[in-house]
Design goal:
The chain is 15% helix and 35% strand. The protein has 242 residues and is of the alpha+beta class. It has one domain: Thrombin, subunit H.
Length: 242
């Protein structure tokens, strides 16, 4: 699929996550729908926040009533509260949540590339599409940003388990929790962080994308796998010992 085709197919599945910290200061991240009303975001976007919501515009809210892709401006917004559930490993930057009323949004399928199956030759220099909500200065509302990108490296980090991809898009706050789509129409993973040293500005780091295995683990742990993924993985990610 081309970048334009990926955007047309899946852009409505990505939502801004609007939060407030304990001081009342606002923040923003991204989340994406993986089916059945289940959503994925980055743990650091929602952990410790006193107020967490997704922002739903009228196109996404009224999507089941639309016979064709929207070609007009939709400016009615609704905040829908969410209750995040976290990966059992505190070091894994994954959170999931369920909003059944949004189950009609497009489902972004998660790729089948578990950590042990990934090698550099498969993925380096592949084209991807990054979708998320980094704030745009002076914009009147939260705008979905789409960036054509490329996988530059596959890395194992010293402090965090699981495979990560380095992609060529500039890291910006608000992309966290956003989806990175492969040309095959599946999620390669989720934007988690900007790799930095010495407290340099976020934009000087590498955009880092966590692969799908810990996302599947978190969804399975909390019983939020989509019906399609539950069938595909046949119990592999069901809660252990529950």
């Amino acid at each position: 699929m081309s970048a334009k085709e990926l955007y047309a197919e899946y852009s409505a599945a990505v939502l801004p996550v609007v939060v407030k910290d304990e001081n009342g200061d606002p923040g923003i991240g991204s989340a994406f729908h993986v089916g059945g009303g289940s959503f994925v975001t980055a743990r650091h976007v929602v952990e410790g926040m006193t107020d967490c919501c997704v922002e739903v515009d009228s196109f996404r809210r009224d999507r089941p009533l639309q016979a064709a892709p929207h070609d007009e401006k939709y400016d009615r917004f609704e905040l829908v509260a969410l209750q995040p559930c976290f990966h059992p490993d505190n070091d894994i930057d994954v959170a999931v949540f369920s909003i059944p009323s949004l189950s009609d949004l497009p489902r972004i399928p998660l790729g089948g590339h578990l950590d042990d199956w990934i090698n550099d030759d498969q993925f380096v220099l592949n084209e991807v599409l990054v979708l998320g909500f980094p704030p745009i200065p002076l914009a009147q509302s939260n705008i979905l940003v789409a960036a054509r990108s490329q996988i530059n490296a596959v890395v194992d980090l010293t402090a965090v388990k699981h495979v990560h991809f380095i992609v060529s898009t500039m890291a910006r706050g608000g992309f966290s929790g956003g989806v990175v789509l492969s040309e095959w129409g599946v999620a390669m993973g989720m934007v988690t962080s900007s790799l930095l040293k010495n407290d340099k500005p976020e934009e000087l780091g590498y955009m880092t994308v966590l692969s799908v295995e810990p996302i599947l683990e978190c969804l399975g742990k909390h019983g939020l796998l989509s019906p399609e993924d539950a069938k595909l993985w046949d119990g592999l990610f069901d809660p252990k010992g529950d």
